[in-house]
């Protein structure tokens, strides 16, 4: 019965996702904000109901439901074009330009020297009216007036007059996708790639959780999340690739493969820069190896583009920071309440340094995801970006740590995208902070604030510590020690085998959705 309930909720969420992709977007009059808000609320409610219902499911059915839900919801997110962002059009164009042997940082998309590369779906021909005036028609199509009179360029890209902003690993990814599909197909190649990456992340979480004795049901917080379906698949944001590299870095570092973890971290940063905020939690043990490998990887990825373009490899990044209000402090919704204008930049810098220092100091190197959760989530609240897809980086660490309350951050950022009001953003982010603090203090119990300033790292696993199942596991571990001292090597080996099976079974069966 419980499996049936979860299945029905997931089916409803998949149907709703498909309906939204086909029928609702921000580009067409009459199909915009209000329908998206209603759809967003319904999707998050179905998601919450499915996650709660999963609490009653045991055994292999958990893995089957999580994977089936991830595939079904993700596939539904592919049945229409992007509905909130046209960034994936720029990804496709950058890949086409790169595969032509041209640096994507060298020319702006509207440059006439690139006219021979333009596919019709990205640059449709303008229509000429009875009066001889050329105009652009179609959803997601913008009109660009070039230098000559009547020289009109129709484009699905945004910001056709500026160079690309994306780092080298992202550009290699774009080129790789278009090398396989060619320039002709429209949005589906990147949507399919986003789906594969999101499902791959689900699989990575399941394997990582099983290895570490974490409740597998937590993976649903990623696999079924509406933000993942929308931003990783429908709108195909390259942040998804950064998520894969960042999660791989976390798992590699916890297995003491510091060099490989650093390589993965460097690749993540060279994909979108933002994953650098996941780094402090990975540096507590053998941090110099992680930093060295990440830095070398980052530089090696940049070298070919620097040789080809020089300082132009920065692309539109400086202009983007100015456009978004980060250089004058107007972007920081909460901080600007107490430190308006340029002072906000100083306050933000201090806050980020403090959070990073606490993360580095208090993170358990064997389970760094709580530190990554706090660092990434706090940064998103402090910087309050305009776009919810930046929060994709947060969601896997919500799943690993089981801290469901942090989902309030991507939800608040989603509301901000739909309603770009500073006052509303302040309310939603403040509500998210209050919820996170309240739930965290309740979970931590008495003395939580005092423990924060002790030297011992915070062991933030909600995977059953303190539960009866964990006590059984600890008892089994002690039995192994006794067996080794009394029964000799052969008996100890047998006990270790039993302990592994017991811990595996405990990881499958423990319930962690209670007061902890």
Automatic annotation (TrEMBL):
<keyword id="KW-1133">Transmembrane helix</keyword>
<feature type="transmembrane region" description="Helical">
    <location>
        <begin position="258"/>
        <end position="283"/>
    </location>
</feature>
<feature type="transmembrane region" description="Helical">
    <location>
        <begin position="418"/>
        <end position="441"/>
    </location>
</feature>
<dbReference type="InterPro" id="IPR018584">
    <property type="entry name" value="GT87"/>
</dbReference>
<dbReference type="Pfam" id="PF09594">
    <property type="entry name" value="GT87"/>
</dbReference>
<dbReference type="GO" id="GO:0005886">
    <property type="term" value="C:plasma membrane"/>
</dbReference>
<feature type="transmembrane region" description="Helical">
    <location>
        <begin position="290"/>
        <end position="317"/>
    </location>
</feature>
<feature type="transmembrane region" description="Helical">
    <location>
        <begin position="186"/>
        <end position="207"/>
    </location>
</feature>
<feature type="transmembrane region" description="Helical">
    <location>
        <begin position="61"/>
        <end position="80"/>
    </location>
</feature>
<feature type="transmembrane region" description="Helical">
    <location>
        <begin position="373"/>
        <end position="398"/>
    </location>
</feature>
<keyword id="KW-1003">Cell membrane</keyword>
<keyword id="KW-0812">Transmembrane</keyword>
<keyword id="KW-0808">Transferase</keyword>
<protein>
    <submittedName>
        <fullName>DUF2029 domain-containing protein</fullName>
    </submittedName>
</protein>
<feature type="transmembrane region" description="Helical">
    <location>
        <begin position="33"/>
        <end position="54"/>
    </location>
</feature>
<feature type="transmembrane region" description="Helical">
    <location>
        <begin position="337"/>
        <end position="361"/>
    </location>
</feature>
<comment type="similarity">
    <text>Belongs to the glycosyltransferase 87 family.</text>
</comment>
<keyword id="KW-0472">Membrane</keyword>
<dbReference type="GO" id="GO:0016758">
    <property type="term" value="F:hexosyltransferase activity"/>
</dbReference>
């Amino acid at each position: 019965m419980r499996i049936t309930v979860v299945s029905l909720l997931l089916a409803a969420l998949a149907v709703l996702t498909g309906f939204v992709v086909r029928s609702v977007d921000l580009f067409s009059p009459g199909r915009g904000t209000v329908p998206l808000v209603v759809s967003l609320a319904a999707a998050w409610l179905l998601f919450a109901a499915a996650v709660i219902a999963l609490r009653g499911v045991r055994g292999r059915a958990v893995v089957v439901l999580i994977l089936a839900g991830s595939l079904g919801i993700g596939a539904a997110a592919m049945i229409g074009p992007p509905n909130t962002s046209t960034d994936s059009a720029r990804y496709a164009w950058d890949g086409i330009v790169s595969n032509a042997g041209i640096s994507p940082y060298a020319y702006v998309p509207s440059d006439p020297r690139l006219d021979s590369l333009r596919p019709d779906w990205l640059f449709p021909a303008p229509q000429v009216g009875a009066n001889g005036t050329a105009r652009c028609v179609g959803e997601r199509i913008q009109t660009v007036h070039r230098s000559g009179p009547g020289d009109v360029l129709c484009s699905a890209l945004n910001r056709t007059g500026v160079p690309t902003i994306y780092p080298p690993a992202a550009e290699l990814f774009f080129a790789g996708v278009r090398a396989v599909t060619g320039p002709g197909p429209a949005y589906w190649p990147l949507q399919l790639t986003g789906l594969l990456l999101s499902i791959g992340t689900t699989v990575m979480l399941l394997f990582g959780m099983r290895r570490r004795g974490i409740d597998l049901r937590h993976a649903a917080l990623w696999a079924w999340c509406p933000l993942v379906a929308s931003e990783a698949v429908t709108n195909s944001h390259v942040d998804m690739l950064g998520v894969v590299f960042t999660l791989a870095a976390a798992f590699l570092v916890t297995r003491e493969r510091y060099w490989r973890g650093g390589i993965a971290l460097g690749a993540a940063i060279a994909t979108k820069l933002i994953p650098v905020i996941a780094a402090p939690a990975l540096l507590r043990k053998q941090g110099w190896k992680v930093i060295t490998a990440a830095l070398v990887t980052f530089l090696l990825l940049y070298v070919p583009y620097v040789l080809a373009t020089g300082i132009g490899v920065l692309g539109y990044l400086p202009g983007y920071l100015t456009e978004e209000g980060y250089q004058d402090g107007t972007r920081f919704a909460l901080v600007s309440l107490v430190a308006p204008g340029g002072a906000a930049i100083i306050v933000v810098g201090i806050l980020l340094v403090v959070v990073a220092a606490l993360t580095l100091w208090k993170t358990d190197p064997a389970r760094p995801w709580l530190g990554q959760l706090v660092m990434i989530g706090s940064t998103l609240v402090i910087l309050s970006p305009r776009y919810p897809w930046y929060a994709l980086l947060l969601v896997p660490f919500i799943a690993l740590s089981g801290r469901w309350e942090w989902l309030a951050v991507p939800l608040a950022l989603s509301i901000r995208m739909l309603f770009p009001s500073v006052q509303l953003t302040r309310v939603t982010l403040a509500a998210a902070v209050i919820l996170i603090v309240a739930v965290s203090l309740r979970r931590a119990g008495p003395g939580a604030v005092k423990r924060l300033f002790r030297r011992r790292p915070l062991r933030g696993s909600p995977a059953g510590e303190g539960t009866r199942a964990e006590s059984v596991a600890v008892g089994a571990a002690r039995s192994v020690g006794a067996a080794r001292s009394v029964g000799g090597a052969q008996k100890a080996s047998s006990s270790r085998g039993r302990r592994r099976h017991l811990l595996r079974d405990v990881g499958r069966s423990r319930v962690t959705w209670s007061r902890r």
